[in-house]
Specification:
The protein is an alpha+beta fold. The chain is 19% helix and 14% strand. It has one domain: Alpha-Beta Complex (paralog of FGE (formylglycine-generating enzyme)), CATH 3.90.1580.
Length: 264
């Protein structure tokens, strides 16, 4: 497991609060090196490759938190709840926050930020000079177990995964650091929130949106087709159905994101 503990360390966002006082939010999320591998899509057409090679890349150790997203909306007023365009976020965008610059009791600082659209997630990543992971990258990282490379044969991971899927979304999400790290050192890919990815997906599409820049408003969410080639993998099909139902301006109580970056 290779960490880049200082990749964001020292990136500071200035927040101007009521009364002219100043506060700083530190964006110190770790980026973990994900080794190169191969992603096998859940479903594909006859024109799609059976497997997608994935180059090594960097991925956030944990999902983006409310505190980190607060720094972003403070520095970028157009992404505040009261100012965001309906073209880029639906009416429930950050509605659980107490105010534009006040997450409040329903959104603890260390909990994953949710009710954010794909457009907002992408804007946050670009603000940091990063990007959202592609589906292939996200799935490669999520395929790892807790203590072994293959999550599909990790009984503890499978138990936790299905227990999470069976539970309703809690009113207040847990701190992102409480999620158990997987074999690669990444936390919360399963068991916290669903996560946006960079490329659009339908049940029969595996290409990358970076090659389809004219289709941004048709982007979909991607999350967790671990071992999806297996028709008995109920969780993978459940996640595929979820992401196929979402468009880029959608927000939900269980949908967050994390950032990625190409290796130097």
């Amino acid at each position: 497991m290779n960490f880049l503990p200082s990749f964001r360390l020292g990136v500071l966002a200035l927040s101007l609060l009521a009364g002219g006082s100043v506060a700083f939010a530190r964006l110190d999320a770790k980026l973990v090196t994900i080794p190169a591998g191969v992603y096998t899509p859940l479903l594909r057409t006859t024109k799609d490759a059976a497997a997608v090679p994935v180059a090594a890349f960097l991925l956030d150790e944990k999902p983006v938190t409310n505190a980190e997203f607060l720094a972003f909306v403070t520095a970028n007023p157009k992404w505040r709840r009261s100012q965001v365009s309906p073209l880029f976020a639906d009416s429930s965008y950050l509605e659980h926050w107490a105010g534009d610059l006040e997450p409040g009791p329903k959104a603890p600082p260390g909990a994953p930020v949710v009710r954010v659209s794909w457009f907002a997630a992408r804007a946050y990543a670009r603000w940091l000079g990063q990007r959202l992971p592609t589906t292939a990258e996200w799935e490669l990282a999520a395929a790892a177990g807790y203590t072994q490379p293959a999550g599909r044969t990790d009984e503890a991971l499978q138990r936790d995964l299905y227990a999470w899927l069976a539970r309703p979304v809690p009113a207040v999400l847990a701190d992102a650091t409480t999620a158990r790290a997987n074999y690669l050192g990444v936390r919360g890919l399963h068991g916290l929130v669903w996560e946006w990815v960079d490329d659009f997906n339908t049940a029969m599409v595996t290409g990358e949106s970076r090659g389809d820049t004219g289709l941004e408003r048709d982007l979909f969410c991607g999350a967790g087709t671990v071992g999806a080639k297996d028709p008995t993998d109920y969780a993978a099909f459940m996640r595929q159905a979820l992401r196929s139902s979402l468009k880029a301006n959608n927000t939900t109580t269980s949908l967050g994101f994390r950032c990625a970056k190409d290796l130097p």
